[in-house]
């Protein structure tokens, strides 16, 4: 008997697959994101975030301490761009807080060194390699529950970011700093929790009380029960630029000031290949699939205008579904030690060049993918 082969349905607008976590397709083949099926929840968070941003812009000097805000500084283009504005245009008294992620790109570290030379802020470096690696092992090794929730394909990235956001919350809480600036791009803002207490509560719900209390040494619980006026508030500076956000212009402005010597792909953390492995293995999509879908959606709706609402732009001519399938094959082959290094290298360079990277950037990112198994072994993760 011959089995009938079924074809995976994809959204007719943005090309998201029907099995993408948290997404559903209607009878006409249009996904819930394109139908704005989740817009209510997203806009509620967006409204609160905008309110906090307006409050921050009206606020004067912090009467309880020497800093007006703790600024989360990663060395990427967005945080470098806004740190320069906060200090040199807005006149804020800024504590530039960098969590020294053990997976940091060498190019991000170079940008931090440039900022220290050129921007008159107070810079603080925090670190906790053992506990953030513990969290990452937990994420990569835990069973995946299908069909999944929205953003489940990015769970390792979200968990890592939440870990050091909570570290920043605890730092600001201890030092009575009223605001925390977090430079998410306009698309990320829609999907990020902006209430301090809810950030901590969400980590407890994801990882449980035992692991949470272990990695934060029982301090996180203090945030849950603190008085509202004592809690720092999270500010997303790019909410004011949500209609004009342009990553290419941001990079050009920074390079003109000597504050940025790389590209967005080059300042990704060294876990970027593993993040793609996780997304492909569990959800059959690349790490940036939602971003690519957003790009296709905006171009389909207005062919004369590319909305750049996310950190990575995509060339119009790029065949994104085909690129995704090629990347999936090479990522899973590297993870399983199939094929040869030269072949993987050539294919990856071609992929990143088609995604708009320069030759130098494509080679830099490719080396990270070729070293994916080494990074996994360092974390204690079995591929």
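^ structure tokens above, recovered residues below v
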């Amino acid at each position: 008997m011959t089995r009938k082969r079924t074809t995976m349905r994809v959204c007719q607008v943005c090309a998201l697959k029907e099995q993408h976590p948290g997404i559903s397709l209607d009878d006409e083949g249009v996904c819930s994101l394109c139908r704005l099926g989740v817009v209510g929840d997203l806009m509620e968070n967006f409204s609160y975030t905008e309110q906090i941003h307006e409050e921050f812009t009206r606020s004067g000097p912090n009467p309880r301490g020497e800093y007006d805000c703790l600024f989360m500084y990663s060395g990427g283009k967005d945080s470098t761009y806004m740190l320069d504005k906060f200090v040199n245009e807005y006149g804020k008294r800024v504590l530039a807080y960098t969590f020294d992620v053990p997976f940091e790109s060498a190019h991000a570290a170079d940008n931090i060194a440039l900022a220290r030379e050129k921007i008159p802020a107070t810079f603080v470096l925090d670190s906790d390699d053992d506990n953030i690696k513990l969290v990452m092992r937990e994420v990569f090794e835990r069973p995946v529950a299908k069909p999944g929730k929205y953003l489940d394909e990015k769970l390792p990235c979200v968990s890592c970011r939440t870990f050091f956001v909570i570290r920043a919350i605890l730092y600001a809480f201890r030092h009575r700093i009223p605001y925390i600036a977090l430079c998410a791009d306009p698309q990320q803002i829609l999907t990020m929790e902006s209430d301090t207490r809810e950030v901590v509560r969400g980590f407890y719900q994801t990882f449980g009380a035992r692991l949470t209390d272990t990695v934060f040494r029982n301090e996180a619980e203090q945030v849950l029960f603190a008085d509202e006026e004592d809690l720092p508030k999270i500010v997303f500076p790019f909410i004011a630029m949500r209609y004009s956000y342009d990553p290419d212009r941001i990079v050009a402005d920074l390079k003109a000031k000597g504050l940025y010597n790389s590209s967005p792909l080059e300042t990704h953390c060294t876990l970027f290949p593993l993040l793609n492995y996780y997304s492909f293995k569990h959800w059959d999509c690349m790490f940036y699939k939602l971003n690519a879908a957003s790009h296709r959606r905006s171009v389909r709706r207005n062919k004369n205008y590319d909305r750049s609402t996310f950190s990575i732009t995509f060339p119009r001519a790029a065949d994104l579904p085909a690129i995704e399938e090629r990347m999936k094959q090479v990522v899973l082959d590297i993870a399983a030690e199939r094929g040869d290094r030269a072949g993987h290298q050539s294919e990856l360079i071609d992929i990143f060049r088609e995604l708009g990277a320069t030759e130098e950037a494509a080679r830099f990112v490719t080396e990270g993918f070729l070293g994916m198994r080494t990074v996994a072994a360092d974390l204690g993760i079995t591929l």
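Residues 1-5 have pLDDT under 50 and may be disordered.
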